[in-house]
Write a structure and sequence with these properties.
By secondary structure, the chain is an alpha/beta fold. Helices cover 18% and strands 30% of the residues. It contains eight helices and 13 strands. The chain has a seven-stranded mixed β-sheet. Strand 4, helix 3 and strand 5 form a beta-alpha-beta unit. It is globular. The two termini are 34 Å apart. The structure holds zinc ion (ZN).
Length: 275
């Protein structure tokens, strides 16, 4: 695996108003590639003052977002699950931290993408947890995989499973070289035309990214795992389960909520909820 730096171009845009007034021909289609049971106590940090203190387990979808840009081609945001999970809830992974998921037949990302799987220009990963990256195993190995800096260094394939095995090129986004567009101190114009943005939202993992898709039908914010479910946003309480740094994760959620309040019309999708 070659690890490269993802070349960022400085954006000429200075505000989200201007960006949203210049939408691009890009569309999002969201696929459910499986589902997972999560505990509500931990989906909301129980130590947060505003925690709703609700308990029990909910089944939530594991998602992958297919982007088609009329001029620049097709991309994927997160890969969801590959076909290994239909017959085996652990997806063939035999490591100490293997995770259990649920998958119906033909729900895997490779099946749902069909011919589009070979036409992908790149896969951007919000972070490297198994439910966001296992689907890479369904895809051609020559598609570049792009992650936030810190993800590769922190990733432990012996503990979680080696989902990026045989991938030829992984590119890291170093947000030190990125733009500041209020309220975000670190964001990046991924395709160079203002159509797709990565926002640095660390906490859940070190290099975690959220995304904004600036399409003709209106902008969409994909929080990824800054919010597992929409209620993380409505209560203003970040998850603590599966989270590296809970305080930092809360700051990232607070920043996204500030953005959502500024742009009331924006469509917001949480990491494990349907748009
Ligand atoms: Zn995660």
């Amino acid at each position: 695996m070659k690890i490269k730096n993802y070349q960022l171009k400085r954006s000429s845009y200075e505000s989200w108003e201007t960006i949203f007034n210049n939408p691009a021909p890009i569309e999002v289609q969201t696929y459910q590639t499986g589902s997972v049971l999560i505990e509500l106590d931990g989906t909301f940090n129980p130590n947060h003052l505003k925690s709703p203190r609700i308990y029990g387990t909910v089944e939530v979808p594991i998602l992958s977002h297919f982007l088609s840009h009329k001029k620049l081609g097709n991309f994927l945001l997160d890969a969801g699950l590959d076909k290994s999970y239909y017959l085996d809830p652990y997806g063939g992974v035999e490591t100490p931290q293997k995770e259990e998921y649920i998958q119906d037949k033909n729900q895997n990302i490779g099946y749902q993408l069909g011919d589009n799987a070979s036409k992908l220009k790149a896969v951007f990963l919000s972070h490297m947890h198994p439910d966001h990256i296992a689907g890479i195993r369904d895809l051609p190995k020559d598609i570049p995989v792009i992650v936030g800096k810190g993800e590769i260094e922190d990733y432990e394939p012996d503990l979680y499973g080696d989902f990026l095995k045989d991938v030829e090129t992984v590119c890291e986004i170093d947000f030190q070289d990125s733009d500041t567009i209020s309220p975000f101190s670190k964001c990046a114009d991924l395709l160079g035309d203002g159509s797709l943005w990565a926002i640095s939202t660390p906490g859940h993992t070190r290099g975690h990214m959220s995304f904004i898709v600036n399409g003709l039908m209106g902008p969409k914010l994909l929080t990824m795992d800054v919010a597992f479910i929409q209620e993380n946003i409505s209560y203003g309480v970040a998850p603590s389960d599966y989270t590296l740094n809970v305080e930092e994760a809360q700051r990232s959620l607070d920043m996204l909520i500030q953005f959502i309040r500024l742009f009331r019309g924006i469509e917001v999708t949480a990491g494990h909820a349907f748009p």
